[in-house]
């Protein structure tokens, strides 16, 4: 590995410079990505390893980030489970057979990842080959709650009414569904690691809709199952729960070598609450990329100053890059991290 | 006042029973409201004191809540400022002349509330008359950030890109706009109090999009100006900032006799962080109303148990009632608060 800052930081080891990568760094804000996207559907891109690998490498070449993250969608493993998934134009994912009852849960299949999503593993292998050890490759999966929320609601949601109704009215159905999802996630991430992923991130994008008591009862045991089952795999696991600053202690209890932070909390305060036996990742507001480059630099410096010299910080946004973002501003961000994040070893 | 539990709790005095009212208690989930709404536009309802008073009283009659809140919209004061506002069908508010530049801000007018929104003050007077002292009447306004966000974005937003760009690129324009908004809010709330509002709530519905450092620099001074200028008015001020559990200490610093809490934090933990020299309001997940009534009762009891015997808690949801909510479940909630919230005086 020519650049191992990212992996070292995950292990809380000293680094020459704070590593940086960005959630959704392979995406629509980039001209090179859109050239491919204009020729292929989103799902075709995900399912064609050559295309997935190509867009995975684009930000590494263009931005100089310290890690690549596999181009894929968190919902891909759902198809093998029997979910009828469509990416409707401008509407995001739509599930035509949402899971609402015990009978629906009974029908859900738990199959092997190589069988359900062979193209993902092939993309991982291809990315590793094409990266030639320049930077590490991160694999990823949705977390149990976030995958369940799509399966139950049938799409994105503002209210999660169906999800919460299942938790409160039929907790045994909820847990039965989550047990199946947990197992699929573990198999999916183990397969990615086996194929060559050098770290994995678990995205709990929508769990911020829950109260702490509901997180503790209905989510924590499932996220913990996933984390516990990845412990022996020898790669760092990043656990990112968006909009969950009040859940941080519970997220840590669920597990992960690195805890992802959104921008709603100061990083020093968050790390203190978590304890220094985990690494942290974050936490710039993704909208900061719409500020002038000098201002971006100031905001980067402020986060790095809050972290100080403590090893174990991976710079990232607090959520994914917006599609209207300017690539030049993203490059300015990466340069600012590498400038202000230099350490005297 | 026949029922003064709510006002006593705002002042942290002992009460016979925990008071309860619900954000958006006058609204579309109620048959009686829809009967009027089907005959009139939303804006007509807001601007016709007889209709506004009628829907304000509906939840008092139907639910047995301990306070009425004026039926109005937070955007009403914007029209007098020169904002071209429309409530588009199913799309929420649309502003046809969003504020983006210094020239736009210069054009914004700061006028007297009785001149800009006489119908609001008339509705307050009418509500007081029709309530006949049964329960207190709460007036309200949007907070500086939330009103500014609509004026700048031109509608609701997921990203607040234009708002944040103004803060970061042209802070003097941002503060000039907010100074005008602050003054309008103070005049608007003072006029409501003069007309008869017995408490007022300031809603910062969207401020949860900000990092603590941005809140502190760009919002806190403005919210504080509003709170400071209401101190001499002799009525309790409730300050509710949604999705802002990490900002609680700053929200308290801005001011308010009662701090509103969403459902993302345990109420005992939040109150401890705030300090016991303020009252608190909240904090049930509004989606809890979709649970079976027995489960609603359990969730109510859990919040009341966390509060214990400390005076100064007003029961409420952590955000507004959803339009799909069952009225019977709302009644079950109010009954549960009155059952489990009884105090031995």
Walkthrough of the structure:
The structure is a homodimer of 345-residue chains. By secondary structure, chain A is of the alpha/beta class. Chain A has a single domain (5-340), classed as Alpha-Beta Barrel (TIM Barrel), CATH 3.20.20. Helices cover 49% and strands 12% of the residues of chain A. Chain A has a seven-stranded parallel beta sheet with strand order 1-4-5-6-7-8-9. In chain A, a hairpin with a 3-residue loop joins strand 2 (85-88) and strand 3. Chain A binds chain B through residues 159-161, 164-165, 168-169, 208, 210-214, 243, 245-247, 263-266, 285, 287-288, 290-292, 295, 302, 322, 324, and chain B through 159-161, 164-165, 168-169, 208, 210-214, 243-247, 263-266, 285, 287-288, 290-292, 295, 302, 322, 324.
Offer a few descriptive terms:
homodimer; 345 residues; alpha/beta; TIM Barrel; seven-stranded parallel β-sheet; two-stranded antiparallel sheet
Give the gist of this structure.
Chain A has 345 residues and is α/β, with parallel strands linked by helices. In chain A, helix 13 links the parallel strand 6 and strand 7.
**What is the chain-wise order of helices and strands of chain A?**
HHHHEHEEHHHEHHHEHEHEHEHEH
Strand order of the largest sheet of chain A: 1-4-5-6-7-8-9
Oligomeric state of the chains present here: homodimer
Total number of strands of chain A: 9
CATH architecture of chain A: Alpha-Beta Barrel
Low-confidence residue ranges of chain A: none
- Largest beta-sheet characterization of chain A: 7 strands, parallel
The level of helicity of chain A is: 40-55%
**Arithmetic mean pLDDT of chain A:** 96
Largest interface chains and counts: A-B, 31 and 32 residues
Structural class of chain A: alpha/beta
């Amino acid at each position: 590995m020519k650049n191992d800052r990212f992996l070292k930081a995950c292990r809380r080891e000293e680094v020459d410079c704070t590593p940086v990568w960005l959630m959704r760094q392979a995406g629509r804000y980039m001209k090179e990505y859109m050239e491919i996207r204009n020729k292929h559907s989103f799902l075709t891109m995900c399912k064609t390893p050559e295309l997935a690998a190509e867009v995975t490498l684009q930000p590494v070449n263009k931005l100089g980030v310290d890690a690549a993250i596999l181009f894929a969608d968190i919902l891909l493993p759902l198809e093998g489970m029997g979910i009828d998934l469509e990416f409707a134009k401008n509407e995001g994912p739509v599930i035509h057979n949402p899971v609402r009852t015990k009978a629906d849960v009974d029908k859900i299949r738990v199959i092997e990842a190589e069988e359900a999503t062979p193209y993902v593993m092939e993309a991982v292998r291809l990315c590793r080959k094409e990266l030639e050890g320049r930077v590490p490759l991160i694999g990823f999966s949705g977390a149990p709650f976030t995958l369940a929320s799509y399966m139950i609601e049938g799409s994105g949601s503002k209210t999660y009414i169906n999800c919460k109704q299942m938790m409160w009215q039929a907790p045994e159905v909820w847990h039965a569904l989550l047990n199946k999802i947990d197992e699929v996630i573990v198999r999916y991430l183990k397969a990615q690691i086996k194929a060559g992923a050098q770290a994995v991130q678990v995205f709990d994008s929508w769990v911020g809709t829950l109260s702490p008591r509901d997180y503790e009862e209905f989510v924590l045991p499932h996220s913990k199952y996933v984390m516990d089952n990845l412990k022996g795999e020898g790669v760092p696991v990043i656990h990112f729960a968006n909009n969950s600053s009040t859940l941080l202690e519970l997220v840590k209890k669920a597990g992960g070598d690195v805890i992802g932070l959104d921008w709603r909390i100061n990083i020093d305060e968050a790390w203190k609450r978590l304890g220094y036996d985990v690494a942290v990742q974050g936490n710039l507001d993704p909208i900061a990329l719409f500020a002038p480059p000098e201002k971006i630099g100031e905001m980067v410096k402020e986060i790095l100053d809050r972290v100080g010299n403590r090893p174990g910080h991976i710079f990232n946004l607090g959520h994914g890059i917006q599609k209207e973002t300017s690539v030049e501003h993203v490059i300015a961000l990466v340069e600012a991290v590498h400038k202000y994040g230099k350490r005297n070893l």
